[in-house]
Specification:
The chain is of the alpha/beta class and about 280 residues long. The chain is built from ten helices and eight strands. It has an eight-stranded mixed beta sheet, with helices on both faces. It is elongated, with a radius of gyration of 20 Å. The structure holds guanosine-5'-diphosphate (GDP). The site of guanosine-5'-diphosphate has 18 residues, from helix 4. Its main location: cytoplasm. Keywords: Cytoplasm, Endoplasmic reticulum, GTP-binding, Hydrolase, Nucleotide-binding, Ribonucleoprotein, RNA-binding, Signal recognition particle. It catalyses: GTP + H2O = GDP + phosphate + H(+). Belongs to the GTP-binding SRP family. SRP54 subfamily.
């Protein structure tokens, strides 16, 4: 019976793109924890096994600590990083909107001079949500834009300044150099790495590459609506150490906290990450 239930769970995990090594380790843990001989008769064994598996998975993504949150009345500068198309610009506005509704004085700075139309996209999103923004059609230096935008909003007393940066199609030196320069001038309170939840096993390498360049404190996984189940992201966490901490997780070795998941293209489609509901969704 244990083998049967474990097979079902393994199937669900593979479908969610959790990597094979991690599934194997998880299975071993479950076999160790779940001692069927010692269960009194009358207890529903299948339910118990499922609960053990669920708890094991939660342990992998629950850091037991809260992800980073901005503090009202202080200047909180948040820098967003991630590859092009990961959902950075969309998520910046979602996060701005989320905290604006909680009473923060929020604004957005666009430093993406790489992708054509990036500033227009941020401008449109921000205007729709009535969030003050800064950007330029003529300035081509992202570092200068970051300095100007952050200085302006700091002097105007904003308490949450969200800086969107440009991405590239892949992890490349130029992108990382730019990210580092912006981070050096902006001195962010927190840097959030935005990861596309549909990339599966590539999550590991991507998380590592970004984390080694900038001091990332949180991850937001996007596109968790549709088919993406985020198993790749969990694997990325697990591959880095023995326990995972949070999606908006916490990857222990990286000390990364998953804070939110993106669940659609609209401004409301952002949910705080909670291990239980995430694992519940992942397991279907
Ligand atoms: P950027 O290049 O990283 O700034 O990415 P964008 O913010 O432009 O997003 C790329 C595409 O992904 C856009 O079409 C967004 O509407 C879409 N997108 C972003 N977040 C989500 C999400 O959580 N779910 C879905 N379905 N689409 C998303």
């Amino acid at each position: 019976m244990l083998d049967e239930v474990i097979k079902d769970i393994q199937r669900a995990l593979f479908e969610s793109d959790v990597n094979a090594r991690l599934v194997k380790k998880l299975t071993e843990n479950i076999k160790k924890t779940c001692k069927l001989d010692e269960i009194p008769s009358g207890v529903n064994k299948k339910k118990l096994i499922q609960k053990t598996i669920f708890d094991e998975l939660i342990k992998m993504v629950d850091p037991g600590t809260e992800p980073w949150k901005p503090i009202k009345g202080k200047v909180n500068i948040v820098m967003f990083v991630g590859l092009q198309g990961s959902g950075k610009t969309t998520t910046c506005t979602k996060l701005a909107f989320y905290y604006q509704r909680k009473g923060f004085k929020v604004c957005l700075v666009c430093t993406d001079t790489f992708r054509a139309g990036a500033f227009d996209q941020l401008k449109q999103n921000a205007t729709r949500a009535k969030i003050p923004f800064y950007g330029s059609y003529s300035e081509t230096d992202p570092v200068q834009l970051a300095i100007d935008g952050v200085d302006k909003f700091k002097s105007e007393g904003f308490d949450l300044i969200i800086v969107d940066t440009s991405g590239r199609h892949k992890q490349e030196a130029e992108l990382f150099a730019e990210m580092k320069q912006i981070s050096d001038v902006v001195q962010p309170t927190n840097s959030i790495f935005v990861m596309d939840g549909t990339i599966g096993q590539a999550a590991d390498g991507q998380a590592k590459a970004f984390k080694s360049t900038v001091d990332i404190g949180s991850i937001i996984i996007t596109k968790m609506d549709g088919h993406a189940k985020g198993g790749g992201a969990i694997s990325a966490v697990a591959a880095t150490g023995s326990n995972i901490m949070y999606i908006t997780f916490y990857l222990p070795k990286f000390n990364l906290l998953f804070s939110f998941i993106g669940t659609g293209e609209h401004i409301h489609d952002l949910e705080p990450f909670t291990p239980k509901s995430f694992i519940g969704k992942m397991m279907g």
